[in-house]
Protein backbone atom coordinates (compact mmCIF):
# COMPACT_ATOMS: atom_id res chain seq x y z
CA UNK A 1 0.00 0.00 0.00
CA UNK A 2 1.32 3.40 -0.97
CA UNK A 3 1.62 5.91 1.85
CA UNK A 4 -0.01 9.32 1.51
CA UNK A 5 -0.02 12.48 3.66
CA UNK A 6 -1.72 15.85 3.58
CA UNK A 7 -0.63 18.97 5.42
CA UNK A 8 -1.31 22.64 6.03
CA UNK A 9 1.12 25.15 7.50
CA UNK A 10 3.89 24.05 5.14
CA UNK A 11 5.47 27.49 4.84
CA UNK A 12 5.86 28.13 8.58
CA UNK A 13 8.88 27.63 10.79
CA UNK A 14 8.23 23.97 11.56
CA UNK A 15 6.23 23.28 8.42
CA UNK A 16 9.03 24.07 6.01
CA UNK A 17 11.16 21.37 7.67
CA UNK A 18 8.29 18.91 7.92
CA UNK A 19 7.55 19.20 4.19
CA UNK A 20 10.98 17.88 3.33
CA UNK A 21 10.84 15.06 5.84
CA UNK A 22 7.37 13.92 4.84
CA UNK A 23 8.35 14.03 1.16
CA UNK A 24 11.00 11.44 1.92
CA UNK A 25 8.69 9.36 4.12
CA UNK A 26 5.50 9.21 2.03
CA UNK A 27 4.89 8.17 -1.57
CA UNK A 28 2.58 11.18 -2.03
CA UNK A 29 2.47 14.42 -0.04
CA UNK A 30 -0.44 16.81 -0.56
CA UNK A 31 0.36 20.37 0.47
CA UNK A 32 -2.33 23.03 0.79
CA UNK A 33 -1.00 26.56 1.24
CA UNK A 34 -1.27 30.13 0.03
CA UNK A 35 2.23 29.96 -1.43
CA UNK A 36 4.37 27.04 -2.63
CA UNK A 37 6.79 25.71 -0.01
CA UNK A 38 10.48 26.30 -0.54
CA UNK A 39 11.11 22.57 -0.85
CA UNK A 40 9.34 20.77 -3.69
CA UNK A 41 9.93 17.32 -5.13
CA UNK A 42 8.26 14.88 -7.51
CA UNK A 43 6.16 13.20 -4.82
CA UNK A 44 4.42 16.45 -3.87
CA UNK A 45 1.04 17.70 -5.05
CA UNK A 46 0.56 21.38 -4.29
CA UNK A 47 -2.87 23.01 -4.03
CA UNK A 48 -2.94 26.77 -3.72
CA UNK A 49 -5.66 28.28 -1.53
CA UNK A 50 -6.06 32.04 -1.41
CA UNK A 51 -8.60 31.91 1.40
CA UNK A 52 -8.77 29.07 3.93
CA UNK A 53 -12.49 29.78 4.27
CA UNK A 54 -12.75 27.98 0.92
CA UNK A 55 -10.79 24.91 2.00
CA UNK A 56 -13.75 22.60 1.43
CA UNK A 57 -13.66 23.39 -2.30
CA UNK A 58 -10.13 22.00 -2.56
CA UNK A 59 -11.05 18.81 -0.72
CA UNK A 60 -13.37 17.88 -3.54
CA UNK A 61 -10.38 16.91 -5.67
CA UNK A 62 -7.43 16.15 -3.36
CA UNK A 63 -8.08 12.41 -3.09
CA UNK A 64 -7.86 12.07 0.70
CA UNK A 65 -9.01 8.79 2.28
CA UNK A 66 -8.38 6.46 5.23
CA UNK A 67 -4.88 5.67 3.94
CA UNK A 68 -3.89 9.34 4.35
CA UNK A 69 -2.12 10.80 7.39
CA UNK A 70 -2.91 14.46 8.13
CA UNK A 71 -0.54 17.07 9.55
CA UNK A 72 -1.11 20.66 10.64
CA UNK A 73 1.60 23.19 11.46
CA UNK A 74 -0.72 26.12 10.77
CA UNK A 75 -0.51 28.98 13.24
CA UNK A 76 0.01 32.71 13.63
CA UNK A 77 0.21 35.40 16.31
CA UNK A 78 -2.21 38.13 17.30
CA UNK A 79 0.19 40.73 15.88
CA UNK A 80 0.38 38.99 12.52
CA UNK A 81 -3.35 38.30 12.40
CA UNK A 82 -4.32 41.83 13.41
CA UNK A 83 -6.93 41.09 16.09
CA UNK A 84 -8.06 38.53 18.65
CA UNK A 85 -10.78 37.34 16.31
CA UNK A 86 -8.47 36.97 13.32
CA UNK A 87 -5.92 35.09 15.41
CA UNK A 88 -8.53 32.65 16.67
CA UNK A 89 -9.86 32.17 13.15
CA UNK A 90 -6.46 30.96 11.95
CA UNK A 91 -5.31 28.97 14.96
CA UNK A 92 -8.63 27.39 15.87
CA UNK A 93 -11.17 27.66 13.06
CA UNK A 94 -8.89 26.88 10.12
CA UNK A 95 -7.22 24.00 11.95
CA UNK A 96 -10.57 22.63 13.07
CA UNK A 97 -12.06 22.91 9.59
CA UNK A 98 -9.06 21.12 8.07
CA UNK A 99 -9.28 18.36 10.66
CA UNK A 100 -13.03 17.91 10.14
CA UNK A 101 -12.65 17.74 6.37
CA UNK A 102 -9.96 15.10 6.82
CA UNK A 103 -12.08 13.11 9.26
CA UNK A 104 -15.09 13.27 6.92
CA UNK A 105 -12.88 11.71 4.24
CA UNK A 106 -11.97 8.84 6.55
CA UNK A 107 -8.53 10.00 7.73
CA UNK A 108 -7.59 8.08 10.88
CA UNK A 109 -4.30 9.66 11.98
CA UNK A 110 -3.88 13.38 12.71
CA UNK A 111 -0.71 15.17 13.85
CA UNK A 112 -1.13 18.64 15.34
CA UNK A 113 1.48 21.25 16.19
CA UNK A 114 0.39 23.07 19.35
CA UNK A 115 2.30 24.83 22.14
CA UNK A 116 3.83 23.92 25.49
CA UNK A 117 1.67 26.49 27.27
CA UNK A 118 -1.68 25.35 25.88
CA UNK A 119 -4.11 25.87 28.76
CA UNK A 120 -7.86 26.35 28.56
CA UNK A 121 -7.78 28.42 31.77
CA UNK A 122 -4.84 30.62 30.83
CA UNK A 123 -5.23 34.39 31.02
CA UNK A 124 -3.32 34.59 27.75
CA UNK A 125 -5.32 34.35 24.53
CA UNK A 126 -2.59 32.44 22.68
CA UNK A 127 -2.48 29.65 25.26
CA UNK A 128 -6.27 29.42 25.55
CA UNK A 129 -6.80 29.15 21.80
CA UNK A 130 -4.14 26.46 21.48
CA UNK A 131 -5.94 24.45 24.15
CA UNK A 132 -9.34 25.03 22.52
CA UNK A 133 -7.94 23.76 19.23
CA UNK A 134 -6.59 20.63 20.88
CA UNK A 135 -9.96 19.95 22.51
CA UNK A 136 -11.98 20.61 19.36
CA UNK A 137 -9.87 18.27 17.25
CA UNK A 138 -9.84 15.64 19.98
CA UNK A 139 -13.64 15.60 19.79
CA UNK A 140 -13.48 14.51 16.14
CA UNK A 141 -12.51 11.05 17.35
CA UNK A 142 -9.48 10.27 15.18
CA UNK A 143 -8.08 6.80 15.65
CA UNK A 144 -4.70 8.34 16.47
CA UNK A 145 -4.35 12.02 17.39
CA UNK A 146 -0.83 13.13 18.26
CA UNK A 147 -0.36 16.64 19.69
CA UNK A 148 3.09 18.24 19.83
CA UNK A 149 3.78 20.93 22.43
CA UNK A 150 7.17 22.55 21.82
CA UNK A 151 8.77 25.25 23.95
CA UNK A 152 10.43 28.30 22.35
CA UNK A 153 11.11 27.42 18.72
CA UNK A 154 14.59 28.09 17.40
CA UNK A 155 14.75 29.33 13.82
CA UNK A 156 14.15 32.43 11.78
CA UNK A 157 10.86 33.99 12.90
CA UNK A 158 9.31 36.52 10.55
CA UNK A 159 7.45 39.28 12.36
CA UNK A 160 8.03 37.80 15.84
CA UNK A 161 10.55 40.14 17.53
CA UNK A 162 9.99 38.81 21.04
CA UNK A 163 10.77 35.27 19.98
CA UNK A 164 13.84 36.45 18.08
CA UNK A 165 15.00 38.29 21.19
CA UNK A 166 14.42 35.15 23.25
CA UNK A 167 16.58 33.16 20.88
CA UNK A 168 19.45 35.61 21.20
CA UNK A 169 19.25 35.42 24.97
CA UNK A 170 19.16 31.62 24.82
CA UNK A 171 22.36 31.45 22.77
CA UNK A 172 24.19 33.20 25.59
CA UNK A 173 23.09 30.76 28.27
CA UNK A 174 22.61 27.56 26.28
CA UNK A 175 25.98 26.06 27.31
CA UNK A 176 24.72 26.11 30.90
CA UNK A 177 21.38 24.40 30.23
CA UNK A 178 20.62 20.70 30.01
CA UNK A 179 18.16 19.37 27.45
CA UNK A 180 16.52 17.49 30.31
CA UNK A 181 14.85 20.78 31.27
CA UNK A 182 11.25 20.85 30.08
CA UNK A 183 11.46 24.53 29.08
CA UNK A 184 14.61 24.07 27.00
CA UNK A 185 14.13 25.73 23.56
CA UNK A 186 13.97 23.38 20.60
CA UNK A 187 14.81 23.87 16.94
CA UNK A 188 11.97 23.81 14.43
CA UNK A 189 13.77 21.05 12.55
CA UNK A 190 13.76 18.80 15.62
CA UNK A 191 10.03 19.38 16.15
CA UNK A 192 9.42 18.40 12.52
CA UNK A 193 11.57 15.32 13.04
CA UNK A 194 9.53 14.34 16.09
CA UNK A 195 6.33 14.65 14.07
CA UNK A 196 7.69 12.56 11.20
CA UNK A 197 9.12 9.96 13.58
CA UNK A 198 5.80 9.62 15.41
CA UNK A 199 3.90 9.11 12.17
CA UNK A 200 6.36 6.51 10.98
CA UNK A 201 6.23 4.69 14.31
CA UNK A 202 2.43 4.42 14.11
CA UNK A 203 2.72 3.14 10.54
CA UNK A 204 5.35 0.51 11.40
CA UNK A 205 3.35 -0.75 14.38
CA UNK A 206 0.18 -0.97 12.29
CA UNK A 207 1.82 -3.50 9.98
CA UNK A 208 2.07 -6.01 12.80
CA UNK A 209 -1.19 -5.23 14.61
CA UNK A 210 -3.40 -8.29 15.00
CA UNK A 211 -6.11 -6.74 17.20
CA UNK A 212 -8.56 -3.88 16.50
CA UNK A 213 -7.03 -0.41 16.83
CA UNK A 214 -7.70 1.33 20.15
CA UNK A 215 -8.40 5.02 19.63
CA UNK A 216 -5.81 7.13 21.37
CA UNK A 217 -4.72 10.75 21.88
CA UNK A 218 -1.04 11.18 22.61
CA UNK A 219 0.47 14.47 23.77
CA UNK A 220 4.19 14.76 23.13
CA UNK A 221 5.71 17.40 25.35
CA UNK A 222 8.83 19.42 24.65
CA UNK A 223 11.09 17.28 26.84
CA UNK A 224 10.04 14.14 24.99
CA UNK A 225 10.71 15.74 21.60
CA UNK A 226 14.19 16.74 22.74
CA UNK A 227 14.87 13.16 23.80
CA UNK A 228 13.44 11.67 20.61
CA UNK A 229 15.61 13.82 18.36
CA UNK A 230 18.82 13.95 20.38
CA UNK A 231 21.86 13.18 18.27
CA UNK A 232 23.89 10.35 19.74
CA UNK A 233 27.56 11.19 20.21
Structural commentary:
By secondary structure, the protein is α/β, with parallel strands linked by helices. Helix content is 40%, strand content 18%. It contains 8 helices and 9 strands. The chain has helices at residues 15-25, 55-59, 78-81, 84-104, 125-138, 161-173, 188-206, 222-228, and strands at residues 4-8, 28-33, 44-48, 68-72, 109-113, 144-149, 153-154, 186-187, 216-221. The chain has a 7-stranded parallel beta sheet, with helices on both faces. Strands 7-8 form a two-stranded parallel sheet. Helix 4 (84-104) packs parallel to helix 5 (125-138). The longest helix has 21 residues, at 84-104. It is globular. The termini are far apart. The relative contact order is 0.14. The mean pLDDT is 89.
Defining key terms:
two-stranded parallel ribbon, alpha/beta, single chain, 233 residues
Short description:
It holds the Pfam family Epimerase. The protein contains eight helices and nine strands. It has 233 residues and is α/β, with parallel strands linked by helices.
Overall number of strands: 9
Structure annotation, total helices: 8
- Morphology: globular
Order of helices and strands: EHEEHEHHEHEEHEHEH
Percent of sequence in beta strands = 15-25%
Helix content: 40-55%
Strand order of the largest sheet: 3-2-1-4-5-6-9
Secondary structure class reads alpha/beta
C-alpha end-to-end distance: 36 Å
Average pLDDT score: 89
Spatial extent as radius of gyration: 17 Å
Largest sheet: 7 strands, parallel
Low-confidence stretches: none
InterPro entries: Epimerase_deHydtase (IPR001509), NAD(P)-bd_dom_sf (IPR036291)
Subcellular location: Membrane
Pfam family, one: Epimerase
Protein name: Oxidoreductase
Amino acid sequence: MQRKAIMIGATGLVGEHLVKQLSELYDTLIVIARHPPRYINASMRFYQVNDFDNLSEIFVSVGVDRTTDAFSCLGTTKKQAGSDEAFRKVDHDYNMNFAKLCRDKGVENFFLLSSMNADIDSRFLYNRVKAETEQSISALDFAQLVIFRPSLLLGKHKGRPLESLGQKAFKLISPLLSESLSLHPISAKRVASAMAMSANDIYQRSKYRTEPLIKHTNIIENKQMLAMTRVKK
